[in-house]
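ingest -> validate -> predict -> emit
validate: passed (alphabet ok, no gaps, 171 aa)
predict: started
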Amino acid sequence: LYIEEARQKSIVPGCLSATTLLNSAKDDQTRKPELVYDLIVVKEPMHWSPESSLPILGIARTEQGGVVTLSDVLHLLQPMNGESEEDRQKRRASFALILRMLVIHELGHVFDPSPDLNSPSNPTAEEMAALHCQNECVMRSGNTEELSEKIRLKPFCPECLTKRRQFFRKP
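emit:
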């Protein structure tokens, strides 16, 4: 139901409108009114909103949940002809690392005690970067596989880690 609505409101053929998907989950009247954190994983590509064709890998809202797409990394699960066992394991490890960092990043937005409630409906790349950490951190916009490998054991920079801890300590 959520995904079909996100397809219908998409302005990019073959993609999902990410904000529509989040809104559909939030507005679902069949759900219990208690606080629930959703993490929706899809395999179709996504773009920001019905007003923006900006491609994204994930989106999240504080105290609601998030959506991530596997569209850019699913190829890492496909076997390759003549591939050695070592290369297959590296490819699958790369998929797992990228997915882990993507999920941690979106959950980092969910548990942000100071969200930007005025995020634009049709953001520029510069506005998107401003909503993210500028340090070598999982909360940086556009993480690369190289950065993910570098930060895999300590994904949050000290500032972002402190912010997430504040979320769980607030009254």
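Residues 16 and 46 are 5 Å apart (CA to CA).
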